[in-house]
Amino acid sequence: MILETLSAMRDLGRLHDIASILIRYGFGDLVRRLGLERLLEKAGRALNWTRLEELLHLDPPQRVRRALEEMGPTFIKFGQILATRVDLFPPDWIAEFEKLHDRVPPLPFERLRSQIEEDLNGPVDEVFVEFDETPLAAASIAQVHRARLPDGQQVIVKIRRPGIRPTIEADLRLLERLVAIVEREFPDVRRFHPQEVLRQFKISLRNELDLLTEARNTARAADNFADEPAIVIPKVYWEYCGERINVQEYIEGIPGRDFNALDAAGLDRKVLAQRGADAVLKMVLIDGFFHADPHPGNFIYLSENRLAFIDFGMVGLLSESRRDQVVDMLNAIVVRDAATVVDVLLDWAGDAAPSTERLTAEVGMFIDKYHGVALKQLRLGDMLTEMTSLMRDHQLTLPPDLTMLFKALITLEGTGRQLDPDFDIVAQASPLLQQASVLRFHPDTLLRKGQRNLISLMAVLSALPQDIRRLMRLLRSGAFNIHVDLSQLDRFGMLMDRAASRLTVGMVTASLIIGSSIVMTVEGGPTLFGLPAFGVLGFTAAGIGGLWVLISIWKTSRKGEP
After folding, report:
1. What residues form DSSP beta bridges with 145?
2. pLDDT-derived band of residue 113, with 50, 70 and 90 as boundaries?
């Protein structure tokens, strides 16, 4: 089975490592069902099936998290992406995935020197007047060093680890194969859309591999906050940037997690919490481009209660229509309009078709639960968690951009409450929500949408004569064909044929029973076991026919077919 999917034997060693880790953490049955055991045994590799006693006391989320940690950087980052899927996993799983940290020992700078000098087109000592070879931070994909430019500007230099791309691409190939096998072997998993989760992960990881993407994200955020003096975004020095190197302004201040230093500096926690929330909510509701991981480690506190955002490696994008949906849903919750909330949820869920009546009833109960609650007592994180739980119950999943949004808002509320225990994100969001609603119907916005629609209409009308001419030419030549996709009818035909076969065998079986019963009452003729031979043969044939019908029904019911 798995031999059909593993086309590259060079990944066999990595596969052995992953299978061994899964077995060690109590997922031996998964290894067997995936066929990894047989493949590795054929390749002459033995698996260690010993279980550690200590691991048996871990909860499943803990075992999965620790297994991902041991599998290495690609799987750690995969777990971090899963931590954003609050619509797929319950809170205990999300909490474990959030514990995954991408920290690895730094590489000696001498192993990076040749690569960075190639990217900078010159020796490090000539490009920078100062360069600290001891890294500020190190992760699996890149590590960060501090330096100073000839004009005296302090910068950080983010350098991608040499040879990391081939390793990650090999892991991605392996993940693609494993996800395909899991979908085939565990049909119940399909409702979680593992292929879509993997696609989101591949996009995110490949963007992170290209350090120019982070530079572009940082520059875009800086443009959006150019008129906001209280929010600082690092400047990008494009002349030094490339796919493997990113040079940005070094911002000196108080790290986001150092609350003692924050208090010692006399900064106002409440103001910082409000400004941080306003900035993220502006990104979400107005700009449609937001920092997807606003935890304290990505903040720097500056004098005069200013706030700097760093590390734009993970960002979220919301289209104009998606922002309109978010505004519609939040407004509907406020006015207790369950039907509108359901409509938005169904738009988000795509092709899923749950019971609308039941979903509307449960959304109505969800809204009533929070209606009339004082703003200070509302917890946005609890509301979003409960809503995603409701969606899970109805097998609805969120689009990737919204999973990142929900996760960002939950993280933002937690960060705000760390700064200010009385932080109220709902009250903080209200003015921006109103502003977004007004902007949605502002004359300039309507004019822009009208112009866009008019251009599309004119394009269609301008092409209409040519399309009609082409259609008439096809009609005159007799080459006009209508293609109807009847692929579903093939399966329907098979089902009808199977049903007809069962019905025929059933009727023949019934006829044999009736005929054999009559024969059994007739005296004379050959006998078998003291009974009329033809009657015995008839009952035997009827028994075989009945048994065939029962076995056929049993087999199809096991496959979940009609």
Report:
1. 157
2. very high
CB hemisphere CA count around 202 (13 angstroms)? 15
Per-residue pLDDT of 479-494, as tens digits, reads 667 766 555 556 656 6
pTM of the model: 0.68
Phi-psi region for residue 44, left (φ > 0), alpha (ψ -120 to 50) or beta? left
Mean pLDDT of 33-44: 54
Per-residue CA distances from 438 to 331, 356, 386, 452 (Å): 13, 31, 29, 20
Q: For 216-237, give one letter per residue: b (16+ CB within 10 A) or e.
A: bbbbebbebbeeeebbbbbbbb
The 3-state secondary structure of 478-523 reads CCCCCCCCCHHHHHHHHHHHHHHHHHHHHHHHHHHHHHHHHHHCCC
Give the tens place of pLDDT for each residue, 345-359: 877 766 655 667 777
pLDDT, residue 2, reads 45
Q: Which single residue is written with the structure tokens 């500020």? A: 136
Q: Which residues contact 247 (CB under 8 A, 6 or more apart)?
A: 147, 155, 156, 157, 158, 236, 237, 240, 241
pLDDT in tens, 127-169: 999 999 999 988 878 899 999 999 999 999 999 999 888 888 8
| Residue located via tokens 């910082």 | 272
Is 125 catalytic? The answer is no
Read off the tokens for 192. 């979680």
C-alpha closest to that of 368 among 335, 396, 390: 335
How far apart, in Å, are the Cα atoms of 485 and each of 56, 471, 479, 489, 490? 52, 21, 19, 9, 11
How close are the terminal C-alpha atoms of the chain, in Å? 27
CA 139 – CA 432 distance, rounded (Å): 36
Active-site residue (options: 87, 171, 293, 311): 293
